[in-house]
Amino acid sequence: MAETKATLSLPDKGSVDFPIKKGSEGFDVIDISQLGSHGYFTFDPGFLATASCESKITYIDGGQGILLHRGYPIADLAEKSSYLEVCYLLLHQELPTQKQYDEFLTDIKTHTLVNEQVVNFFNGFRRDAHPMAIMCGVVGALSSFYHDAMDVSQEKDRLLAALRLISKVPTLAAMSYKYSVGLPFIYPRNDLSYAGNFLNMMFAVPAEDYKINPVIEKAMDRIFILHADHEQNASTSTVRLAGSSGANPFACIAAGIASLWGPAHGGANEACLTMLEEIGSVDRIPEFIKRSKDKNDPFRLMGFGHRVYKNFDPRATVMRETCHEVLKELKIKDPLLDVAMELEQIALKDSYFVEKKLYPNVDFYSGIIMKAIGIPTSMFTVIFALSRTVGWVAHWKEMLEQPGHKIGRPRQLYTGYSKRDYQPIKKR
Ligand code: SDX
Fold first, then answer.
1. Residue 67 in 3-state DSSP?
2. What is the pTM of this model?
3. Of the residues 130, 230, 306, 395, which is catalytic?
4. What is the mean pLDDT of residues 95-119?
5. What atom of ligand 1 comes closest to residue 292's alpha carbon?
C-alpha cells in the first residue's frame, strides 16, 4: 500500500511524522501505533474516528448509503444471492462455483444437530427467560463440546468452528423459542433450505408438519442476508477483541451475542416494535417525535439513526420492499405498519431528524416482517444474532489470519488519584 505521511506538532516534542495507509475504498488512515513512544495516546471514546483493524470483508459508505460485501452491493446480494452463498463469500472472499457451493452446503448440513446434552442446559433456564439470555449461555456452552477443533492457530480448526457455528446457531435459536413456549424441540431437517429448516424448527410441532410458504422462506433468507455483516459494529468489535486473546471461538461468538443484545444495537428491532406498540396509533406520533427530541427524556425513536449511515441504510430500503411483499402475501393489514409508515414519513421531513441525518435503519422494518411471520418480538434479536454469526466468524477468522496480529489492549486517559499513602481505618 503506497504510504504518505501526516505530521503532528507535539508540545515540547516538535513535529512528528506518522505514516498514512491508503485503503481501496473509503478513508485513508493515519498509523499512530508509534505515538506512545512520543509520550501521547489518542483519545476517541466510542471509536468515532478510529480504525481498529484492517479488513477486506465489508465496506460501508455512510454518507452515500453504500454497503458492499467483498465488493458486491447488498441490494444485488439480497435480490440475486442466498444467505449460504453470502456466508461462503464472507468466509472465502469469492462467490462459490457450483462445486464449491455444493460442498459448502454438504458441510453445513453435516453440523446442524447439537449434542443431545445441550438440552440439559435449556432445562436450567426459567421458561420465561429471554431467548437472548439463553443464547448467550448455550452458544458459549458449545465451547465444552468441541475439544477436537480448538486450536485457533490451525486453519482447519478455524473453518470447522465456523461451519459448526453457522450450522448450529439456527438450531439453538429455534430451541430457545420452543423452550420459551413449552413446546418440544424440532430437529433440523437437511432436506430443507437453510431458511426453510429454521422456519420448520420454529413452527413445526410433532403433531403436524409445518407448511413452508415460499414467500416467507425467501423473506427469511433475505433477512438473514441483510443482517449478515456490517463492518466493525459493536458486536463484531467485541468478537474481534475476545478472539484476539486466542479465546475459544464459541465463547467469542457468545460475547458478540451479549453485545448485540443492547437496545442501541441489535436489540433495536425488538425495541422498535415495542415502541410502535406504545405509540399505538398515527395520531400519537407527534407526541413521541417531541419526546425523542427532548434531551431530558431518554426516549429515542428506535429503528432510526446510525453511527455510520448519515443517509438511508441500504438494508432498510430492501427490508421495506420485503415488508410490503410479506404483508401482501399474508393479506395482513397491520395497524403497526400504518404507524411505522406514517412515522417514517414524518421523521424524514422533520427538521431535527433531517439535520441530524437520522434515517430509518435496518431494524425499523425487520421487526414488522418478523411479527407478520409470527415470530415473537423476544426472538427478533435472536434472529439478528443468527444472521450475524457468519459476519462475526468471518471477522474472527480474518483477525487471526492477519500477519502479526496482537491481543487487543486499548490504553486510557487516567484522571483518577495520583499516588497516595494508605491510611489505617482509625485515621480515616
Ligand atoms: C444497529 O454499528 C452498526 O453497524 C450497527 C448495525 C449493524 O448492522 O451492526 O447497523 C445495527 O445497531 C442499527 C442501529 C439500531 N439502533 C437503534 O435504532 C437505536 C436508536 N438509535 C440511536 O440509539 C442512535 O442513533 C445510535 C445508537 C444508533 C447511533 O448513535 P450515535 O452515532 O452514537 O449518535 P448519537 O447517539 O450521538 O446521536 C447523535 C444525535 C444526538 O443528538 P445531539 O446530542 O447531537 O443533540 O442524534 C440524536 C442524539 O440525541 N439521536 C436521536 C436518535 N439517534 C440519535 N434522537 C432521536 N431518536 C434517535 N433514534
1. strand
2. 0.92
3. 306
4. 97
5. 57
